[in-house]
Amino acid sequence: MGKRHAFDEIMGQSGSATPRPELAALGRWIDETPDGELRRRQQSAEATFRQLGITFAVYGDSDASERIIPFDIVPRIFLADEWARLSEGLIQRVEAINAFLDDIYGARKILDAGVLPPDLIFGNPQFRPEIAGIRPPHGIWAHICGIDLVRTGPDEFFVLEDNARTPSGVSYMLENREAMLRLCPELFREFRVAAVDSYPDRLLETMKSVAPNGVVAPVCVVLTPGHYNSAYYEHSFLADSMGIELVEAADLLVDDDVVWMRTIAGRVKVDVIYRRIDDDYLDPLVFNPNSMLGVPGLISAYAAGNVALINAPGNGIADDKAIYSYMPEIVKFYSGAEPKLPNVETWRCREPQALKYVLDHLEQLVVKLVDGSGGYGMLVGPTATKQEIEDFRAALIAEPHRYIAQPTLALSTVPTLSDAGLSPRHVDFRPFVLMGSKGVQVVPGGLTRVALKEGSLVVNSSQGGGTKDSFVLMDGGNVQRQAQSHGGMTQSQGA
Amino acid sequence: MLSRTASSLYWLGRYIERADFIARLVEATVRLDVLSPRPAGEAAWASALAVTETDEAFKASGETVSQQHVARFLTLDITHPGSIVRCLDMARNNAKAVRTALTREAWTAINRAWLMFNGRSSPGGAMATLNLVEAVKTEARGFEGAIHRMLRNQTTWFIRLGQAVERADNTARLLDVKYHLLLPEGERVGGVVDRDQWTTILQTVSAVTAYRWLYSEGLKPANVIDLLIARPELPRSLAASSEETLEILNLLAKRTGLHGEADRMARMRQSRLAKTRSGEVITSGLHQYLQAFNAENNLLHDAIGRQFKFG
């Protein structure tokens, strides 16, 4: 982090004593609400989460096999114009991801054009040769993307990761909002906050819109690995709020390339599956033959065009860390325009010049395994010990193609309740983008993850991160409200 | 509805009902223990084990029969599959598997009960034990209230079907074991201990007041047997449980078009119970009657599983 000051989402420049002008009302709310009261409300929210079982499982942790993710009561807020710009960039990116997937499993024009080195695709474990040539219904691959963003300044957003497989966290977006509406209703009187609760309806519309051609009333289901999975709460929450069945693999069978579910009244045909099972476990006949979670024959039914899979199998190639660094070129190739949302500057260690730079600047960089996730397998240079740096140096020299490196960014902060009262903590953000046959939409909200430890940049829930509600202000934000209450009178009389 | 969902809902109903029954049994036994002339309390706890058919399992634990040990065994012992904590765990696992089918209220009732028990190791003394089982009963009531506020559809019917089948089993067990096992050597039929025991049976099924409303005579075993077997007004009687089982199967048949062996069995049982007189039952052997009833109840359980493809 060095000595750079982080941008604060609420206070503007770090160290500022007053909030950004548009967010003055939040400053007042913070000043007027005693810490003890904030803490009481926060505890009440967490007690509710516990009671509702809004939990995630931590693998290999038998003591607390079910944990809640800590919830922070102070929201992060997006102004309407910030959100509008962000949305444009997200839509452009997700459209490019879809075009890329369609191309890479089809004509491969991008390889002919020499934009990407072919071995990056064909040597990539996320590339699924098994499904090359299969076209998903309506040609849509990434129906639900969770694009991880970080911010370093008023207009500086960067994409950190494109999650185009089975991004999770949307249930927290919805539950956090529920908690805020119940515990801090006064904030919603101050600000006109865009609603997030239409998400399940939009998701169901998206699912129905990609049903195989000719199906009039498609039967849609959510496919879960089962209730021992860490995101099971979210799977059941989504099925529940869409009013569709939550199925496990054992509930499904494929007969003559048609997918059926077993019900008390016999078989019912299934048309659209929102699968929350990784490719590897989806169909033992095509992928991992040892999978007990999969449905034998599913891919064959998919290839026959009889069922839509959301997200499409094979998407992993689009959100792979090795591909990520080429995303600006990919966006340009398919959209013909400059990317509206930049990447974080990335050095590909497979390239000798980049490797040299990385080796020379290890103590300033974040180095990641291209196939690592969840904060594992990475070096955070500025906080690493000499030994850790030397270990990574050796690993980099031995297998440079397995690594990328990025600068340590001054991630934005948001005031967060800590033992010592409110103090700034670093955050990231995951908005959710839906793509159906009728277009792309960004749900106005998302998941803000917060690093609860002072100075820490690690926001993963498995590493002790928490979450916050994310307000997206509607046009006019709080200004209109003020005009109605007292500003309006003054203005008309004074003019 | 998925067959797996139907199966989980049915088992959810059974496990919640079982947890509630064991809570009631422990409560009644604490009372009986207190009322018994010293040192006869042990017999009360022995009978609680007999009711649940867990005397062997308890013996294997090597503990002595006392309030402290048996109450812990029946409520909090995680190694004993019939303990309240294990029933709640099974109920919660089934509820989790069908979360999408339950309302928040129904789910939170189960989850709260589970959280209350999870990680506790000792029920404490008589007072603390009573508080603990009271809390289980409260959550079971809350769950029951919640499912009555859910849509009147297959979801609630499968839960209630499980409850009705389990309830019939529990009442039959209770009646059977008390009738045969309890009276210690030298105690007179109709004596103090005998009366306390019959009162305890009534207490376990919350029917002390109901008894007084329905029978003008004082406490008579034949009347208690009549009440618990043949009176459909008492929700936990065999007659009421059988009636409810049949009604729910009818509702399911109407809505899903699925009917068969289970309906036929339930109908036959129902018409037989309508003609049952307690005098005949006692004359021809209460124990044999109740054993036959539960064997039939188990066959009905199997038939339900086949009919709805529980798999």
Automatic annotation (TrEMBL), chain A:
Which branch of life, at top level?
Bacteria
Locate the Circularly permuted ATP-grasp type domain: which residues?
75-451
Q: What is the lineage of its organism?
A: Bacteria, Pseudomonadati, Pseudomonadota, Alphaproteobacteria, Sphingomonadales
- Name the Pfam families on file: CP_ATPgrasp_2 (PF14403)
Q: Which organism is it from?
A: Sphingomonas alpina
Write the protein's name. Answer: Circularly permuted type 2 ATP-grasp protein
Automatic annotation (TrEMBL), chain B:
Taxonomy of the source species: Bacteria, Pseudomonadati, Pseudomonadota, Alphaproteobacteria, Sphingomonadales
- Name the record gives this protein: Alpha-E domain-containing protein
Tell me which residues make up the DUF403 domain.
1-308
Leader sequence segment: none
What species is this protein from? Answer: Sphingomonas alpina
